[in-house]
Amino acid sequence: MFLTISTTGTPERPATDLGFLLHKHPDKAQTFSTSHGTAHVFYPEATAERCTAALLLEVDPVALVRRGKGKGRGGAPDAALAQYVNDRPYAASSLLSVAMTTVFKSALRGVCAALPERAEAPLPLRIEVPAMPARGGAELVRKLFGPLGWTSVDARPVALDEQFPEWGDSRYVQLVLEGDLRLSDALRQLYVLLPVLDDAKHYWVAPDEVDKLLRAGEGWLAEHPEQKLITSRYLSRRWGLTRQAMERLELVRLAEADDLEVEAVDNAVDETTDTEERPVPLAVQRRDAILEALRAAGASRVLDLGCGQGQLVQALLKDVRFTEIVGVDVSVRALTIAGRRLKLDRMGERQAARVRLTQGSLTYTDKRLTGYDAAVLSEVIEHLDLPRLPALEYAVFGSARPQTVIVTTPNVEYNVRWETLPAGHVRHGDHRFEWTREEFRGWAGAVAERDGYSVVFVPVGPDDPEVGPPTQMAVFTRNDSKSDTGNDTTNDSGSKRDTDSGNDAGNDTTGTEKEAKAA
């Protein structure tokens, strides 16, 4: 297997700086032992104007077969000719990717103590791979590398036999990439996409491969148009690992959309406190009030938007009148905890058919959420920044448009009754606001008028004559006589609402069930 990396330079910024970035001296030929062969690094040319580093990997096909317990390509599919006669020593594959992590480990991480500014800056790069398997052909190669910033992606099919052109092309291509990229970005792209194009790996794909993929794909994979194909092939089509990787990549994409850290998005589980719900009476009263309202509405197919750790979903499952229950949350960790709470892996077939947990952001329209009888937003809206509320309003009331929508939120007036809550503090550290009864009624009334709903208000918990109940609940019922499109509705001033707000909004955490915090 052979790979070359070339760059150009000037007397002030010589091309031989490539040696510093790769941590390999241009005047030396170096040899490294890898898990499946011997890697050699040398420089065919090294001047201030142009420098080329070459990586040559010698693979022992006999050792590869023995390590793979006689399964041809080390346990991978498609033993092309026979166990000992195949393309492994010649065509770039996952074997070369692994060798890169051994030989260019620091360069992959973008670490260069000698020239840190060069490591962070784009270089004029030319990368050549003379023989690379491409299941999907040259067109797939261009689809994978094209969106990654290369100005030229030249993938030329290799003929089966140049003496017999009528035989057509082989599944191999000669790849030449040219463009201005950071060296670490280019190497990480190759590390991921070589085994993806080969569509095979020479080693067992364990769960830690998800972390490897996300590390190497940082900065480019979350937004790649072929993300699903890349993820599935890299993880050898192991569906469980692929789903886990896709969920984490979605979190990355949502975080980048709002210029946040992933931890700030995936924060529905408070790791500093007990994540299990305490038996707080208010939490029980809140769920009972929601269940009563759903029964009164005659709902059978219910969305729990911002389901968190699944307390409400669990309660809904106990009532057979709720035939389909979908829990939605942006937090993968919260959904994992919900799955454990519900014992989904041990649930009977009939019961399992009634429930589904899915990841999603409530500030984006989602076609999966249409057609349901009711939607519940229990202790959710206060976890969004106020500018994000119009996006949620449109996603739920304008786009999904269930017949019934139930919203609960803290009543800030009641906070004076909590002896342990300091004056001026909200009930949970992630609350962006807490409304008075008047503020909540004003918001709910405006939403109902805009989107063709009527609304009634229900107190939850002890209704204090001075400050009201600890939780306030609004039950929205759709007026079927009005338009169900959710588009071009007007507010009191007569101006149209921006129906694209759900698409333009970034992600805010919907949060988990927060009853324990309130008490």
Could you please describe the fold and organization of this structure?
This protein is α/β, with parallel strands linked by helices and 519 residues long. It has helices at 17-22, 61-67, 94-103, 105-109, 116-120, 137-145, 183-198, 208-216, 227-234, 239-257, 262-265, 281-297, 311-317, 332-342, 349-352, 389-400, 437-451, 501-504, 515-518, and strands spanning 2-8, 30-34, 37-46, 50-59, 123-133, 152-159, 169-181, 301-305, 324-329, 355-359, 374-378, 404-410, 453-460, 471-478. The protein is 33% helix and 21% strand. The strands form 2 sheets. The chain has a 7-stranded antiparallel β-sheet. Helix 13 (311-317) links the parallel strand 8 and strand 9 (324-329). Helix 8 (208-216) packs parallel to helix 10 (239-257) and helix 9 (227-234) packs antiparallel against helix 10. The termini are far apart. The relative contact order is 0.08.
Tell me the strand order in the biggest sheet. 2-3-4-1-5-7-6
* Low-pLDDT stretches: 69-81, 481-519
Q: Report the strand count.
A: 14
Helix content: 25-40%
Mean pLDDT: 83
Percent range for β-strand residues: 15-25%
User: How many distinct helices?
Assistant: 19
Q: Which value, in Å, is the CA radius of gyration?
A: 29 Å
